[in-house]
Structures are given as structure tokens and as C-alpha cells.
Design goal:
Largest sheet: 7 strands, mixed
Helix content: under 10%
Structural class: mainly beta
Shape: globular
Strand content: over 45%
């Protein structure tokens, strides 16, 4: 089992920045990859960014590429998402997730990000 706790969400104005954190505990030595997903009101959850736990290979959705940066500190078992140049359409609940194999098996409870225009 892996437990994930997100933090860092809040209310910002368009153009500002936020950094989300996700603290992992439990069987963290079995994690192969972690990711950030988001769900806007009335929409399905969508992929934002991911990173492999050992090699730190990253991947981004087109909607956040160039503005968001995913990173991790293995020694702290912590995942980050630096979000710059935020837009109102980035408003969503952001979830971190952990994968042991090829699918995301564990999810956090989510943190709200609201971007006002």
C-alpha cells in the first residue's frame, strides 16, 4: 500500500504560480512512476504530467507543456508540480497518483487549484 497526500493548492490570479506537493508513504520503494492528474468541474479527470521514479523521465500533456514542471525528491518521497503562467482553464482539483507497474494504483485525495481571471 502507498498513501499519497497532496498540498499546495489555492486561489491565484491568472499569470501567477503555484507549487503542488505530494508526500508518499508506505511501500514507496515499489513505485515505478508518479503523475499529476486534474479534474475540472463537469469534466473527466485528465492527465497533466508524469515522471519515472528512478530515471526521472518526464511527460506532459499539451495543455501544460512549457508552463508546468514535474519533479521528485526520492529521499523525501515527495513529488512536486511547479505551475507557472496559470490560466483560468487550469482551475481543477489536482490529484497525484503512483504506479507500481503500468497503471496508476494509488491516488491522493486531491487539492483544489483555482485561477481567477
Amino acid at each position: 500500500q502507498v498513501q499519497l497526500v497532496e498540498s499546495g493548492g489555492g486561489l491565484v490570479q491568472a499569470g501567477e504560480s503555484l507549487r503542488l506537493s505530494c508526500a508518499a508513504s508506505g511501500r514507496t520503494n515499489s513505485i515505478s512512476q508518479m503523475g499529476w492528474f486534474r479534474q475540472a468541474p463537469g469534466k473527466e479527470r485528465e492527465f497533466a504530467a508524469s515522471i519515472t521514479w528512478l530515471a526521472a523521465l518526464t511527460r506532459y500533456s499539451d495543455s501544460v507543456k512549457g508552463r508546468f514542471t514535474i519533479s521528485r525528491v526520492n529521499a523525501k518521497n515527495t513529488l512536486y508540480l511547479q505551475m507557472n503562467s496559470l490560466k483560468p482553464e487550469d482551475t481543477a482539483v489536482y490529484y497525484c497518483a503512483a504506479a507500481m507497474g503500468f497503471s496508476y494504483d494509488y491516488w491522493g485525495q486531491g487539492t483544489q487549484v483555482t485561477v481567477s481571471s
